[in-house]
Design goal:
Two copies of one chain form a homodimer. Chain A is an alpha/beta fold. Chain A contains seven helices and 19 strands. Helix content of chain A is about 25%, strand content about 30%.
């Protein structure tokens, strides 16, 4: 999808993000590292514009090269780290391999992927920091536009002066009572180029409280997002549907009809592996290139000879989900 | 090197870039595509801030995925393309392979790498556009800060209200007369966080004219940069010195002392290939990973068994330059 912005929309985004920074205790003059690149994935822009509004010192590293990211975190004595959840996990892994430390880092704001409490705990311990769960959808304007948890970590505060939030029954569309689980729906009050009215997010949550929070804020709180109403898959901050993978695969000459999308979910962080049957001459490189064009990232995967992937009776099992919880 | 910016510095950069856009005839409301990612390479930021100052509609694509870049250029009827020179070449190649067309694209601003008149001509014909040669160094604040050629293409106008420009003899430091070739030196008049005083760029050029240009501008004009005083190599917008390659290679356990840096220069656009001798167990992946960490991009290259790279008498020939002109 295409998300257009007017100057006012960028200002509104910056305002929402600046609130998130302050809510995480990141005061003026503090140093932050922004790990998403600024390109077609819009996350980097939100972190950046908000940081300028909040008067922060920005190290804009872009994605990748984790050992260098760690070096920069320490060289610039970075106070807060911004990124997608799975990149936080990657930094933690490299830190363990290198037996490194991040003595200056105190806070991270992770978003764009759902993550379990277990994963949050693991990241907090592994990186030695406080982790905030930032929320926002491209359709509402991007990262941080809808809200974040406060230092009391008792749910996601929603910016009710910017968006009306409702929880509905995904089947009937009926608005549900507070406390009942359903689909989150947003109506934007202040966006110009592409305002949304009762936008169905596909995210499952519930209203936890409309009372004043211990932090003093009166914006209502919802449960952190951990489920979806549809088969949308979110990997490394990128959304896609299994049918997009199918269309991409079948557009490659020589690729056959049998394929597997294996989604491994470790405490809410997803990794995807795509296996496909194809005629001789179809290489993994060709498949990866096409999938990268369509999905925006390179999944792992293998090419199999026709007839060698397992068959199932009845409905073809094409999306295989492997969920596990790590300690 | 680290380049810090205050808010005023970003405004100054935006002002310089906005002038470049207007000089290229890119009026308010026109659509531009920015191909550098916004990360540690700062080019994307300059194009972006200038575009907002100039009131342009920005498609921020980031680097890579050239077929998608071409699709976006056409889908959004993009008027002007921004990037490093070698990425312009890449787009031209893919366009030829795909027998594609860019009917809406009229202008490109390419920078960060020197390019010959022959290459400029080739890009203009291959892409069917007018090409501008944008100039600016990280040390002066980034792309576009020092100047660009105007629609009369009679040299690079230097923003003399922002920078003092001098041409010196690189050996003696003496200021040269107009018309004499030497090293370009800049003094910034308006930068705050890191002003430079008589910064030696290493770029070779000469003052062409201080007269009022046919375009009406009175900023002096220098010859486009095509040479350097030192052994600095610029590939894909990234600067490095051969000694950095040597240090990176020798930091890998098992790598031996013999290596080759082969720089192929086609009409001013450089490609680099690094060969190295190493013990069994050192893989191309290990070498590439280390070089990418140090250089910021992955050069091509091969790993050879000890004793198999060619030896030379006397001074070791480690940097091999292959220049050729293509029609």
């Amino acid at each position: 999808m295409v998300m257009p912005y007017t100057q006012e929309d960028i200002d509104q985004w910056a305002e929402c993000m600046a609130r998130c920074y302050r809510m995480a205790g990141i005061e003026e003059g503090k140093t932050i590292q922004i790990t998403p690149s600024f390109g077609l994935f819009n996350g980097g822009f939100g972190f950046y514009h908000g940081a300028r509004k909040a008067g922060l010192f920005v190290i804009p590293t872009g994605a990748g090269n984790t050992p260098r990211q760690i070096r920069l975190l320490n060289d610039f004595q970075v106070y807060a780290l911004m990124g997608v959840v799975s990149y936080g996990v990657r930094i933690m892994e490299v830190l363990e391999e290198e037996r490194g430390e991040l003595p200056y880092l105190k806070v991270a704001m992770f978003g764009a992927e759902t993550f379990s409490d277990a994963m949050k705990e693991k990241l907090q311990n592994g990186l030695g920091i406080e982790v905030f769960d930032i929320y926002g959808l491209t359709e509402t304007g991007g990262v941080g536009t809808t809200g974040m948890d406060c230092p009391f970590h008792c749910g996601i505060h929603i910016w009710e002066d910017q968006y009306i939030v409702e929880v509905i029954d995904p089947d009937t569309g009926q608005v549900l009572d507070d406390g009942e689980k359903g689909e989150i729906v947003f109506t934007s009050l202040t966006r110009k180029a592409l305002p949304v009215i009762r936008f169905r997010t596909g995210d499952i949550s519930r209203v936890l409280s409309r009372d004043r929070c211990e932090c003093g804020r009166t914006h209502l709180r919802i449960e952190p997002i951990t489920g979806r109403t549809d088969d949308m898959i979110i990997v490394k901050g990128v959304n896609f549907y299994p049918r997009q993978v199918e269309e991409a695969l079948l557009s490659i000459p020589g690729v056959r009809n049998h394929y597997q999308i294996i989604i491994e979910d470790v405490n809410g962080i997803k990794d995807v592996h795509i296996n496909v049957e194809a005629d001789r001459g179809v290489t993994g490189f060709m498949v990866e290139k096409r999938l990268k064009e369509v999905l925006g990232f390179s999944p792992k995967g293998d090419v199999f000879s026709p007839g060698t992937l397992p068959r199932h009776e009845g409905k073809e099992v094409r999306v295989i989900r492997k969920d596990r919880e790590e300690e």
